[in-house]
Amino acid sequence: MCSHESYQPEVLLEHAVLAEQVGFDVVTGADHFHPWVDDVSAASYVWTWFGAVAQATSRVELATSVTAPLFRYHPALIAQAAATVDRLSNGRFILGVGTGEAINEAPLGYAFPGYGERIARMREALTIMHSLLDGEKLDFDGEYYEARTAKLYSPPTGRVPVWMAAGGPKSATFAGDTCEGLITSVKDPAETVANIINPYREAATARGADTTVMATRWVVLAANDDEAWESLVSMRGLRAPGRLEVADPAVLRERADAMDRQEILSKYTIVRDLDQLTEAYLPLVTDVGADYVAIQVASADPADTIRRVGAEVLPVLRKAAESA
Q1: Angstrom distance (rounded) from CA 269 to CA 282
Q2: Sorting pLDDT into bands at 50, 70 and 90, what band is 243?
Q3: Do the Cβ atoms of 144 and 120 come closer than 8 Å?
C-alpha cells in the first residue's frame, strides 16, 4: 500500500517500482483530496500517479484502495479513468471502490449524507461503471446520476474487476450482490470472517459469482513507541473522533493531538521486528483465507521496509498460503 496521505507522488512512484522489484504482486493507492492531518502529510491525485506507475512497472497489478465514485466524480469518469489505467498497464488494473469520507468530498462543496444514500448512490454507480467497462453504450436515468449515449471509446483491454470496501455485514452483502471482490480491514480475524467475509461470500455464491477477498491490516514497524509515533505522524488523524464527517485536516490534527498518544497507538498493531510483522499478517492467510493480503506498514524508513518485507516476510506468507 502506497500511502498517498503520507508521501508525495514522486516518492510513492519510487516505492511502487521498488515493490515490484522485491516481489510484491499488487500496488495499491488511495484516492484522497485531503489527508488526515495538515502539518506532515500529502494528498496527490492517484489517477495521474497510476499512469506513471503503469509505465514504470511491468508485472504488478495496480488497484485503487479505494476511490469513491459518488460525489466529486461522475461514475462514468471513474470508468473512463479505470479503463485508461488498464490500457496503460496492459490489463493490470483493479478498481477498488468505497462509499467515501467527508474529508474528500466536503472541501469541494458536496454534502456528505448518511449510509443509506451513499449505498444507494453506489448501486447506481456500479450499474454505470459495469455497463461502460463491459463496452455498452449507456442511457441511464437514476435518482442520482444520468447518462446519455455514454460509451468508453478507449475501453479496457479486458474485464476490469470491481472490488468494494466493506466494514460491516450490510456493505459486505452488497459487495457480494454487485461486485467481483471485497476489500476489508482486519482487526479480529474471527469477527471479520463472521461479520464481513461470510456474508460477502454467501451473497456472491447466491448469484453464482466467484469471490475474491483482499484483507488489509494497519501495522506499525518501530523499535519503540517514540519511533512508532513518528512513523504514524501523518496518519494520526485517522484515529481521531469524527474522521468520516470532518472536512478539514487541521481539525483532525487538533483532535488527535488532544488525545493521549498511547490511546492512538493502541488502535494500531505495533510490531518491533520482522518476525512480529509476519505474525501480524499470517492470520490473514491462515484464518481469514484472503486471496490478497495488503501489507500496510508505517515505518521510519519505508523503502528499507519494502525491501525487508519482500525478502523476509512475503516468502513466509506465500508458503503459508500454499499450505492453507
Answers
A1: 13
A2: confident
A3: yes
Q: In terms of residues, how long is the chain?
A: 324
Which residues have C-beta within 8 Å of that of residue 82, sequence separation ≥ 6?
64, 93, 95, 129, 133, 156, 160
Q: What is the mean pLDDT of residues 31-43?
A: 97
Q: What are the backbone angles phi and psi of residue 96, rounded to the nearest 5°?
A: -95, 130
**How far apart are alpha carbons 91 and 77 in whole angstroms?**
18
Among all residues, which ones are annotated catalytic?
32, 101
Rounded to whole angstroms, the maximal C-alpha distance in the chain is 58
What residue has cell string 488489509?
216
- Mean pLDDT of the 75-100 span: 98
* Residue 12: predicted pLDDT: 98
CA distance 171 to 208: 19
C-alpha cell at 135: 463496452
Predicted confidence (pLDDT) at residue 123 exceeds the cutoff of 90 = yes
Residue 18 has a CB neighbour count (10 Å cut-off) of 17
Cα separation, 19 vs 25, in Å, equals 8
CA distances (Å), origin 36, targets 13, 229, 246: 21, 15, 10
Beta-strand relationship, 61-64 and 26-29: parallel
Distance CA 219, CA 240 (A): 17
131: amino acid identity, one letter = S
**pTM of the model as a whole:** 0.97
pLDDT single digits (tens) 256-289: 999 999 999 999 999 999 999 999 999 999 999 9
110 pLDDT higher than 90: yes
Dihedral angle at the C-alpha atoms of 91, 97, 102, 105, nearest 10 degrees?
A: 50
- List 67's β-bridge partners, or say none: 97
User: Quick check: helix, strand or coil at residue 292?
Assistant: strand
d(CA 250, CA 106): 14
Is residue 301 left, alpha or beta, with left meaning phi > 0 and alpha meaning psi from -120 to 50? beta
- Residue-level pLDDT at 111: 94
